[in-house]
Amino acid sequence: MTSRVHLALGAALFAPTLLIAQPRLIDAFDSTSAWTAVPSEGASATIALADGQTGRALALEFELTRTYSYAIARCDLVTPLELPEDFRFTFDLRAETAVNNFEFKLVDEHDNVWWQRRLDFAYPRDWTRQSIRRRHLTLAWGPQPQAPLRRVKSIELVISAGNGGRGRLLVDNLRFEGFDARVAAAAQARVSVSSAAPGGEPSCDRAGNLTKPWRFAPGDTAPQLTLDFGVSREIGGVMLEWAAGAFAAAYDVQLSDDGVAWTTVGTVTAGNGGRDWLYLPDQQGRALRLVLDPG
């Protein structure tokens, strides 16, 4: 039986933000010359190179011995980074450590410190993409607390004591992207599928919501539907509405920045048709792919 599906996308906070510039590589970590290790009293921290997800990676090796101890990897930028109204920093992260806190900090031109703090963070053992948006950052402290965040002169990656102990934090592919919602008017999503039954070719609106449902062809052993938004878009969730008696009980939802490398962000293994809601907090990509299990 062929499946017929409507698809609707939800952007975080229902306000999509779109990419206006190519991602800027801040550091590929071919060397550690731009980085300094800063341990607290009673802690130790050193910086070295290690094998990365691609090439080399920054390794912050540390030992936290007190409740309030920390270890910082700090980068003082040669040229301050000008920030648009909205932006995100991304990097690949893995660690060999117990549960501890993780802090991403920006030091601005006024020496104000802005941070995202994750308490009792379960650090991934495998390389995992991290994404930090402007809305994730709050003012931690600083001499000019009323000044907006506009220019960054330093970036800090911090592990602070939760359980403490000795470990190693690895970071690769540190990038920056700027966003502007005004480009939404020029963006046109496009849909493509692995196959379509007669009359089952889908279509979509500018935002990527299906305006005509998809039915894949009988005999398609790897049914896939791909939405290319034309720009990088923040995705907060996906809603699938299946036709009566025609649905996939198992499928994956994947995102990609380039249409080549895909990351699975949602999986259903016991679907029963009807309407499926998939909550995808803090996800972003240029393309979304629905991969059905034909069984």
Per-chain topology:
Elements: E1 4-10, E2 24-27, E3 35-39, E4 44-51, E5 56-64, E6 70-82, E7 86-96, E8 100-108, E9 113-121, E10 128-133, E11 138-141, E12 151-160, E13 165-179, E14 190-193, E15 203-204, E16 210-212, E17 214-215, E18 224-242, E19 251-256, E20 263-268, E21 275-292
Antiparallel strand pairs: 1-17, 1-18, 2-13, 3-6, 4-5, 5-13, 6-12, 7-10, 7-13, 8-9, 8-12, 9-11, 14-18, 15-16, 18-21, 19-20, 19-21
Features:
295 residues; mainly beta; seven-stranded antiparallel β-sheet; six-stranded antiparallel β-sheet; elongated
The best one-word shape is elongated
Low-confidence segments, ≥5 residues, pLDDT <50? 9-21
**What percentage of amino acids are in beta strands?**
over 45%
Order of helices and strands: EEEEEEEEEEEEEEEEEEEEE
Q: Could you characterize what this model shows?
A:
The protein has 295 residues and is mainly β. Helix content is 0%, strand content 58%. It has no helices and 21 strands. It has strands at residues 4-10, 24-27, 35-39, 44-51, 56-64, 70-82, 86-96, 100-108, 113-121, 128-133, 138-141, 151-160, 165-179, 190-193, 203-204, 210-212, 214-215, 224-242, 251-256, 263-268, 275-292. The strands form four sheets. Strands 1, 14, 17, 18, 19, 20 and 21 form a seven-stranded antiparallel β-sheet that branches. A hairpin with a 4-residue loop joins β8 (100-108) and β9. It is elongated and about 70 Å long.
